[in-house]
Amino acid sequence: MNESIPPITLPPAQNPVLEGEWLQLRLHRWLDEEFIPEPVNQKIAQRAAQIFVRQRMEGENDLGSLVIAIVTEMQSFDFSKSFYGEFAIANAVSDLLLESLGIDKCCGQ
Prior knowledge:
This protein is mostly helical. Helix content is 60%, strand content 0%.
């Protein structure tokens, strides 16, 4: 029998704005390092962080729900000047958050 992967829950937000600033800096760095630095990377990181902060301020702690919110809301972002899309951004946010929690993104442990 296959066991389901338990949901990953972030600790309740103590300072969502500070979390958003951290996420924006880390995501921007990741975007620049993954391919090439592009001016649009700052805007992508800023928008993803805004979505994240709003979700956290609304009490969202479930990582899966945060990722879905980022994918959904980033669909309206103009990625035409970027190598990335909404799924890559949401996955990167997830990886950065897992790393910050000390969870291996490969195996969930």
